[in-house]
Amino acid sequence: MSQKNVISKRDLLMIANQTIQDHEHYIEGMRATDVEENNEILIFKGHYFLDEQGLPTTKTPAVFNMFKYLAHEFSDKFTLQNE
């Protein structure tokens, strides 16, 4: 297994949000606002485009899939530094 790069939340969020914007399934307003690490998996969080009742909209699955993509893409490469 290759060595993971230690990275700050701030720097990882900058990289993640650039990746989101460059992705073909980017939706205006899609953005990761937080990331945490659980059992070596990076979990990205942000706005899910919920409606006034807090229910999913047609955009919600795209955000969920993007955050899943980021977890898959970055969990093998990075680990969060202790803050």
From TrEMBL:
Pfam families hit by this protein: DUF2498
Domain of life per record: Bacteria
Gene3D superfamilies: Protein of unknown function (DUF2498)
NCBIfam families: PRK11037.1
Name by which UniProt lists this protein: Protein YciN
Native organism taxonomy: Bacteria, Pseudomonadati, Pseudomonadota, Gammaproteobacteria, Vibrionales
